């Protein structure tokens, strides 16, 4: 009787083992896909995650990683065409809801003036000479997980962008 | 709450990854396996601690991890099915001196691994002297020698 039970146990184990091997193979495939996705930039900064909005003639273009990790310091870059300069000043606005999702660490160059205008934050940058193009870098850390959608622009020109933050 | 969530998520992810890696990954460690373990512990440390370096956070994290371990052990005790899913099952690698190649291939084990265990634990140097070799759930290989006179 105990021999028969041992045989049944062994058969049960054998069936379970076959299923476990299939599970492991699927798991390996998922792990490999995850690593490939990471390299491509689908689960954070990678080969194809750094995007630039608009085209060269636009007054302002935004370059940033569209997939980021929560609390990981990153940089987004605003490229401004000379046409954005008025009276030695460049005025950029960013929608306030972006600041609910990120902590800004530094803006380089530092704005000469910062102002709240309704649901926007407006930054003024002094420009003594206007080579083409101008660049403003914003160092930040995402502070909320999930999808972030926001706008920024200069004057009436607006750029809409999105970013997915992984936990 | 964050300590509990971080601890649980990391614990469950590590558990899943090691289950997917297979029994052999958990077995006695060589230098490369020890190195892997050290690197994994470093990689998970920051994810679990985050920005909170307080004693309270550490206590909550440790309690979460040990609590998860206790919970899993209770589940395994109550349910044989859960026990098999969580900890796998023993697997026969060699029977009556003959290696079961399919099992060994799927578990990435070769004759040298079996013979090493046989030599270490029983002083056996030939496959023919092994009645049964079993890959245990822990990843170690148990050897049952042939009784003397058995062919």
Please tell me about this protein's structure:
The complex is a heterodimer of chains A (167) and B (151). By secondary structure, chain A is α+β, with helices and mostly antiparallel strands. Chain A has one helix and twelve strands, in the order H-E-E-E-E-E-E-E-E-E-E-E-E. In chain A, strands 3, 5, 6, 8, 9, 11 and 12 form a seven-stranded mixed beta sheet that branches. Chain A is elongated and about 95 Å long. The model of chain A has no long low-confidence stretch (mean pLDDT 89). With 151 residues, chain B is α+β, with helices and mostly antiparallel strands. Chain B is 59% helix and 12% strand. Chain B starts with a helix and ends in a 6-residue tail after the last strand. In chain B, strand 1 and strand 2 form a beta hairpin. The mean pLDDT of chain B is 86. The longest helix of chain B has 24 residues. Chain B contains six helices and four strands; from the N terminus they run H-H-H-H-E-E-H-H-E-E. Chains A and B meet through helix 1 of A and helix 1 of B.
Summarize, please.
The complex is a heterodimer of chains A (167) and B (151). By secondary structure, chain A is an alpha+beta fold.
């Amino acid at each position: 009787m105990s021999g028969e039970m041992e045989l049944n146990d062994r058969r049960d184990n054998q069936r379970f083992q076959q299923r476990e091997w299939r599970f492991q193979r699927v798991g390996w495939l998922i792990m490999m896909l995850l690593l490939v996705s990471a390299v491509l930039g689908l689960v954070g900064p990678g080969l194809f995650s750094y995007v630039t909005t608009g085209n060269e003639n636009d007054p302002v273009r935004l370059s940033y990683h569209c997939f980021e990790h929560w609390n990981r310091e990153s940089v987004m870059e605003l490229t401004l065409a000379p046409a954005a300069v008025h009276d030695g000043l460049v005025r950029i606005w960013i929608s306030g809801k972006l600041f609910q999702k990120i902590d800004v660490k530094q803006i380089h160059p530092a704005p000469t003036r910062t102002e709240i205008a309704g649901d926007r934050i407006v930054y003024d940058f002094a420009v003594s000479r206007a080579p083409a193009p101008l660049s403003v870098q914003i160092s930040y850390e995402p502070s909320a997980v999930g999808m972030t959608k926001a706008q920024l622009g200069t004057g009436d020109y607006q750029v809409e962008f999105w970013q997915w933050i992984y936990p | 709450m964050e300590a509990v969530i971080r601890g649980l998520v990391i614990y469950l992810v590590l558990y899943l990854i090691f289950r997917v890696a297979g029994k052999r990954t958990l077995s006695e460690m060589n230098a490369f396996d020890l190195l892997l373990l050290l690197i994994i512990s470093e990689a998970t440390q920051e994810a679990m601690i985050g920005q909170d370096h307080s004693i309270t956070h550490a206590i909550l994290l440790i309690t979460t991890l040990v609590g998860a371990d206790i919970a899993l052990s209770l589940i395994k005790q109550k349910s044989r099915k859960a026990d098999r899913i969580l900890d796998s099952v023993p697997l026969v690698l060699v029977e009556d001196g003959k290696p079961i190649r399919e099992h060994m291939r799927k578990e990435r084990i070769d004759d040298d691994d079996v013979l090493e265990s046989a030599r270490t634990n029983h002083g056996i140097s030939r496959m023919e002297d092994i009645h049964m070799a079993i890959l245990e759930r822990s990843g170690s290989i148990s050897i049952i020698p042939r009784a003397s006179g058995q062919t």
